Amino acid sequence: MKNRSTKFKSRNPGIPARLILVSAFGTSMRIIGAISHCITLPFRRPLKNPGPTGTACSASSGFTLIEMVVGVAVSSIMLLMLYTSYRTTLSIVKRVSGYAEFYENINLAIKKIDSDISNCYFKKEGTAHFISTTGDGNSKLNFVTINHKDISMKGDLKRPNPDCDIKEVGYYLIKDKDYQDINLLIKREQSNYDKDPEGGGEQNIILENVVSLKFNFKQNNDWVDKWDSRQNNLYPEAVKTTLIVKNYEGIVDKYIFISNVNLSINTQGQK
Question: For the residues of 185-207, what is the DSSP string, one character each?
């Protein structure tokens, strides 16, 4: 989680922020001096000895010890209040920023899983398979999908040229070494598919603080927790994903979403 810090900026771009802070500090010190002057006014006594010019010296010609003590006490209280307010505001900003980034990552992970499953690639003959296994209470899903691109650099640049890439992907969990009972959601991605539908490619962490990941597959009117297209050469009608995560306060959130398998994208050209 990245810490985001904000810098103090002046509303007037022509005046540096440092000068504004110095001016504010000087004003606050003058206010403190005035307050201490009023508080210590009853304790003052004029000097009886006349000055060198024959006039009596006033007790307000300088700061007395009581004025200094009161000024330091008042300024300390004000600085403590400002520091407490600053720490509270900084803590709230960090917490809100952390929550926003955390839930944004959850939405991105759900969007990736839903998009890949909805655009999975089917081929009657070949090595494009749809395989899901379970272990340690979690699911592992591997399949071939179509990654659509709205714009390509081929052809006329003024006209969008829809293009796509067929790739092999996998979703599964691995243990987080730093935290117990917490997993990392991994997306395995390979630019092409081969005879090994459950391995190869690059592994990237797309979500942290994951407790559980389960896939269920719709077969007729039932939901099953395993699927292997190598045995029946069939794909499920829909996939239900259950994702359980734990936020930074230890609260467990559950996300359930259903992705429809759109085989019409790639079966029209195979008829």
Answer: EEEEEESS--S-TTS-SEEEEEE
Please name the residue ranges forming H helices in the chain.
17-39, 65-118, 229-232, 264-267
CA-wise closest residue to 249 among 103, 136, 107, 104: 103
The torsion angles phi and psi of 173, rounded to 5 degrees, stand at -115, 150
Q: What is the pLDDT of residue 142?
A: 93
Spatial separation of the C-alpha atoms in residues 85 and 78, rounded to whole Å: 11
Asked whether the predicted pLDDT for residue 213 surpasses 60, the reply is: yes
Angle of helix 17-39 relative to helix 65-118, nearest 10 degrees, comes to 140
Considering the entire predicted model, what is its pTM?
A: 0.61
pLDDT band, residue 46 (cuts 50/70/90): low
Of 142, 130, 131, 236, nearest to 187 by C-alpha is: 142
Bridge partners, residue 194, by sequence: none
Q: Give the largest Cα separation in the chain, rounded.
A: 118
